[in-house]
Amino acid sequence: MSKRDLKKYLNKLNKEQLEEQILELYEKFSPVKVYYNFVFNPKEESLLQECKIKISNEYFPIKTTGRGKKPKMRRSVAQKYIKHFTVLGVDPFIILDVMLYNIEIAQTFSSGHAIKQELFYKSMLSSFEQAIIFMIANGILSEFKTRITAIHNETILQKWKKRT
Q1: Are 85 and 98 in contact (CB under 8 A)?
Q2: CA-to-CA distance for 29 and 53, rounded, in angstroms?
């Protein structure tokens, strides 16, 4: 069904029928419920903190047993949050904060650990490029110039590998 067909269909429904359909969508589909919960109660700050904790745990896992937990260093965790925040319509400043935080926590980790996987560096470069493109697209590059410069300087200091 095209968007145009959907509009025609919705125009034929009365208010009660529309309400019923929206409630049914809300009950049946988790993403719809998440969206409406966010729209009516946008706790962006708590979402951001939860997100940062999850990203941090990828590099500095919380030890729940006597044995140490190995860092997974998965970029995908941050990417899922970025996509989720974008779908919800979270403020671009918060989305960019997550993008940069992911790189910064990876740099913090790599400053104390030798990382031999070339894929790690390629992944972080990709994250950095996406962040720059996002900043330019949203017209917020100047507000984050200090963090971008700090990330760049840390990359040079740690002698991160260049993309091949």
Answers
A1: yes
A2: 27
**Do the Cβ atoms of 134 and 92 come closer than 8 Å?**
yes
Q: What is the pTM of this model?
A: 0.79
For residues 78 and 57, what is the distance between their CA atoms, to the nearest angstrom? 11
Task: Quote the tokens at residue 93.
Answer: 């400043």
Contact by Cβ (8 Å): 143, 93: yes
Residues 155 and 162: their CA atoms lie apart, in Å, by: 10
Render pLDDT for 105-114 as a digit per residue (tens, 0 to 9).
Answer: 999 999 999 8
Region at 73 (left for phi over 0; alpha for psi -120 to 50; beta for the rest): left
Tell me how far apart the alpha carbons of residues 33 and 37 are, in angstroms, rounded to a whole number. Answer: 6
> Can you tell me which residue has the tokens 């040079």?
156
